[in-house]
Structure formats: structure tokens, C-alpha cells
Design a protein that fits this description.
alpha+beta; 17% strand; 3 helices; HTH_17; SinI_DNA-bd; 60 residues; single chain; Excisionase; 3-stranded antiparallel sheet; DNA binding
């Protein structure tokens, strides 16, 4: 999607109310897809929404 919103790690931390190391652990474990642009890590907003949906489904 060309208009996909890309979030920074601090933005994802705020949305999920998680710490920095937890967000990076989710990225490393591929539970939260991300892209690297230069030296910056970005997470698609849709990936965050899908992650939340998966977590809700598993909790149900």
C-alpha cells in the first residue's frame, strides 16, 4: 500500500503501552513486522492493528 502509515518504535510503544525492549523483541520474533529505512526501524500501522487482532483472538 503506497499510503501505508509507518510508525516509529516510540509510537508503537505508546499505542501498545509496552516498553522499548518488548517492542524490539516482538520485531525480532517476527510477531510484529517492520522495515528498516536507513538506520530507522518503522512498523506499518496495519501490522500493529493485525497484532492486536491476533492477540484478542488468542485471548478469546
Amino acid at each position: 500500500m503506497p499510503d501505508e502509515e509507518l510508525l516509529t518504535v516510540p509510537e508503537v510503544m505508546a499505542r501498545l503501552r509496552l516498553g522499548r525492549s518488548t517492542v524490539y523483541a516482538l520485531i525480532r520474533s517476527r510477531h510484529l513486522p517492520s522495515v528498516t529505512i536507513g538506520r530507522s526501524r518503522r512498523i506499518p500501522a496495519s501490522a500493529v492493528r493485525e497484532f492486536i487482532s491476533r492477540q484478542m483472538a488468542e485471548a478469546a
